[in-house]
Amino acid sequence: MQSRSPGDRYGGVSGEAAFWKQFLTEVRSRVDGGGVSPEAFARLAEHFRSPGSWAMYGDVLPTLEELRDRGFALAVISNWDSHLPRLLEAMGISPFFRVISVSAIEATGKPGAEIFHRTCARLGVAPAEALHVGDSITDDYEGARAAGLAALLIDRDGRHPQVSDRVEGLAEICGRLRV
């Protein structure tokens, strides 16, 4: 099967179903040579979009509350599909974020600078005034830095001890910020 380029994932909402169908078909093909029926795809999509399929780490809510209470403007920048805003709302955390930037909606994604710059503009801050925290060295840490933001790598499993600007949990972020 011919692989799609990563850029196809960020072609906007109209292309996300086709991307996920092709992705799942390729995964299944590599596992056992089979395909993914329309019914199986629908069940997988429903499961993926269900808030009950996801769990938050214990440090998420306390950290979001402390950052909000300290006056920080918070945003989400995610390489995700267009259902993320509804998922965050259903999980009760969307009110913490002034901006939710999603690659499928923005038609651009991390590690490209554009999604970081758009989010900073919507927050009313310069990239140099922003801190991005994420778990991917390439998409989050290096992408944010290349876009002019400070960055921390969240490394809950201690896989990247060579990265000096890393935290093992979200609670560590609060101790690194002034205000």
Describe this structure in words.
This protein has 179 residues and is mainly α. The chain folds into two domains: 6-49; 60-176, HAD superfamily/HAD-like (Rossmann fold). Helix content is 45%, strand content 11%. The protein contains eight helices and five strands; from the N terminus they run αααβαβααβαββα. The strands form two sheets. A three-stranded parallel beta sheet has the order 3-4-5, covered by helices on one side. It is globular. Residues 1-7 have low confidence and may be disordered.
Key traits:
8 helices, two-stranded parallel ribbon, 11% strand, mainly alpha, 179 residues
Total helical segments: 8
Which regions have little confidence, pLDDT < 50, spanning 5+ residues? 1-7
CATH superfamily of the largest domain: HAD superfamily/HAD-like
In whole angstroms, how far apart are the ends?
52 Å
Domain count: 2
Mean pLDDT: 90
Strand order of the largest sheet: 3-4-5
Taking the sheet with the most strands, its summary is: 3 strands, parallel
CATH architecture of the largest domain: 3-Layer(aba) Sandwich
What portion of residues belong to β-strands?
5-15%
Order of helices and strands: HHHEHEHHEHEEH
**CATH topology heading of the largest domain:** Rossmann fold
SS-based class: mainly alpha
Rg on CA atoms, Å: 17 Å
Approximately how much helix is present in the residues? 40-55%
Extended strand count? 5
CATH class of the largest domain: Alpha Beta
Query: What is the general shape?
Result: globular
